[in-house]
Amino acid sequence: MEMVTNVMEFEKIAKEKLPKMVYDYYASGAEDQWTLQENRNAFSRILFRPRILIDVSEIDVSTRVLGFNISMPIMIAPTAMQKMAHPDGELATARATSAAGTIMTLSSWGTCSVEEVASTGPGVRFFQLYVTKDRNVVRQLVKRAEEAGFKAIALTADTPRLGRRESDIKNRFALPRGLTLKNFEGLDLGKIEKTDDSGLASYVAGQIDQSLSWKDIKWLQSITSLPILVKGVITAEDARIAVEYGAAGIIVSNHGARQLDYVPATIMALEEVVKAVEGRIPVFLDGGVRRGTDVFKALALGASGVFVGRPTLFSLAADGEAGVRKMLQMLRDEFELTMALSGCRSLREISRNHIKTDWDFPHYVPAKL
């Protein structure tokens, strides 16, 4: 594999190695893909206010998430069907994440099961949950995740229907031959097969419960002792409701810009959500993170940590477990460097005063890259 000097370069390698249908599924967003671009571009509208002449000879990037000590505030987001990227799929991601000392979130739509991921060895892992129409299936999935040692449920709340992903429609996306959604094996939930448009969209329409509402957080709490993170919050109104219903945390996410196009970049929505929860529960960011500088900016705006999705898939496609390890190490190294150059020795020292944004100075127009 050619020399990789930053996380974004994994995508080029992945594009060359993966079948077009698979790459497009991982890379594309909804409709015009405006939000897909904005998730990245918005970070460039946040600038640093570094402090100088501070002893940064020792820097601590470790943190705690839901009571668990992790090596850095950079975690793995849930991404589906990882065996399309590499034969080891979610198992490689689990091993790499554990080696890095951070948290992996396994997708409900994984091509490896909760039990298989648990079998890779110790590690702090969360389980991402789609709520199906058959609530007995949900009960079984949650129970299996709990028994397999997963530590939290990340409830995806922004997908009553699948967003219009035109690449998947053109490619007539279907799960490649020989792969299955392992968590659903034996549960009579059908398969993602070729249709006249997107096989995934057809599958979701048949399985996902469109009646899901806030009261179902209470229902989930009644069937599990695991903390519930609500994933998909981008407004202050929903953040306050999540707190009221007992969410253990919020993941500010627009589903990788794959659901409703023309919603704000998650980094733009983050501060509104942070202010609304008033420190009552932790807030995490998911979407657009490709640099250690992005991680710092998210923490300066009040996030307790970030989740990365596409970088996981592309580094996995590029070089399997070693690729994911390298991706996580790159982000950690860049983040630590950003802390040093900003005069911060621990996460506690990162503050809103270390950045300025274009909404702080509305007449500021950044130069185009």
Automatic annotation (TrEMBL):
SUPFAM superfamilies on file? FMN-linked oxidoreductases
Tell me where on the tree of life, at the top rank, the source sits: Eukaryota
The protein's name: (S)-2-hydroxy-acid oxidase
* Subcellular locations according to the entry: Peroxisome
Gene Ontology terms describing biological process: defense response to bacterium; hydrogen peroxide biosynthetic process; oxidative photosynthetic carbon pathway
Q: How does it assemble?
A: Homotetramer.
| Binding of glyoxylate, residues | 25, 165, 255
Q: Provide the reaction this enzyme catalyses.
A: glycolate + O2 = glyoxylate + H2O2
UniProt-annotated catalytic positions:
255 (proton acceptor)
- Give the required cofactors: FMN
PANTHER family on file? GLYCOLATE OXIDASE 3, S -2-HYDROXY-ACID OXIDASE-RELATED
